[in-house]
Design goal:
This protein is of the alpha/beta class and about 375 residues long. Helices cover about 15% and strands about 25% of the residues.
Length: about 375
Amino acid sequence: MPVLLAPEQAPTLPGLLQAANLTGLDSSIVDSDEPMPRIRGLGSLLSAGPSEISFLANPRLQGQLAQCRAAAVILTPEAWRSLEVNRPPFRVVLCSQPYLMYALLAQWFDRHRIQNLPKGVHPSAIIAASAQVADDASIGPHCVIEDGARIGPGTRLGPGCIVGAGSSIGADGLLHAGVTLYHGVHLGDRVIVHSGAVLGADGFGFAPHPASEPGAWAKIAQLGGVSVGNDVEIGANTTIDRGALEDTVIGNGVKLDNQIMVAHNVRIGDHTAMAACVGIAGSTVIGARCTIGGASMISGHIVLGDDVHVSGGTAITANVEKPGRYTGVYPFDEHAGWQRNAAVLGQLSQLRKRLRALEKQDK
């Protein structure tokens, strides 16, 4: 499970492969005397039913094929050749990247689901007279769209979203319930923002103000905005602060998990992905195609180059220019070096005993 389409909506297997955006993927359906099934949904090897498609991406799960009841299964050519039976009870789709094909098929089913949701502007929504909302955009209950905001074609706002003055959302965007965009926040096309995310809050900017009273602070007005590229996804309760003078910038294709903190004036390069609970301090620049593991902390005013991969829980406190994987809380290092040092740390107790024994001999 899940079955997602009514029987009359279900495409045939070739029709599904043609309708989904599989550009660049090699795929073919193995010849069989059985009729082509209609596909109503997709599921795992053990849960998929006779009107669903499944996939085998992990060779260790190949034993589950014997119990699979799916209408069709995506297999690599290697997995197909290794099957013990020449005529499995399901149709076989060959693809060298089954997991990617599954992801693209799932996108197709989800687009179909979204297209069938109610469209239009809910009567409880409040839209400023100067705002521009595309005719085919969908605005949910209790949304607020302020002066000068723009909502692009095909974009959908869930219940209770707020789009601040002068902000904009491109085409085919999706804001789930309760997303807040402050003023001057600009999202590109096909951006997905999950519930509770806040984009454009003030950055944490304060100047010491001892003339007022000891220890006092003067707020630095945050006059920049937030600029988000195309095809970005932002997780639930993630926050992206506006810039002090220039925009905080999120590049094309960036993927941010839940509960991430992006401070003011941060710049994140194209197709970088971050897992949950990452914290990025102000004015840090992160390159393209980086991956940042969960709960990692990135200090402010530093630069991570392109293709830098940070393991979970790592604290990065200085520039990292060389591509590669970096691991460790204190100090971080290239992954291979960190592993060698970690192995030594695991033997510290024994080394301490040996050192004490040697010291006693010297006495």
